[in-house]
Amino acid sequence: MHVFKLLLSMFMLLLFAGCQEDFPTYSTFCDQKTKSLPKCLHYAVLNKQDKDVLQKYIGVVDDPKCAYRVELTKYHVGSCNNPVVKSTGSDFDGYVRIEIKKGFKCYYKVQSDYKNDAEAAFERVLKKAKIDLSQEKKNN
Question: pTM surpassing 0.85?
Fold first, then answer.
């Protein structure tokens, strides 16, 4: 009986572990020559909750007069009518991207795709941005 419980527990663990999304997170400093972290940021994000979370993770207070803008894109693929995509199935349902721009020029961006869990993708890009940008603070 003890062995049965152990096997059942292991099976359940594998089942739930297999359901977790495991999409990579891509990030880059767009201009490799300039690696100094901006001293100010303006969070151009409409959703107040998302804006607060971004500010907390990045660690720079919102300055509406700052030339550096933080933008958040949460894109969900709508219904697709492409017959090739319909026949093969889609690998993802959307993506989450954080970009820091000066004007229209990219300074930094991080992105992750998702299949069913947009919030998990948001967490992945937040964590990656925090790591990348805190390393920049240390290097300056």
Answer: no
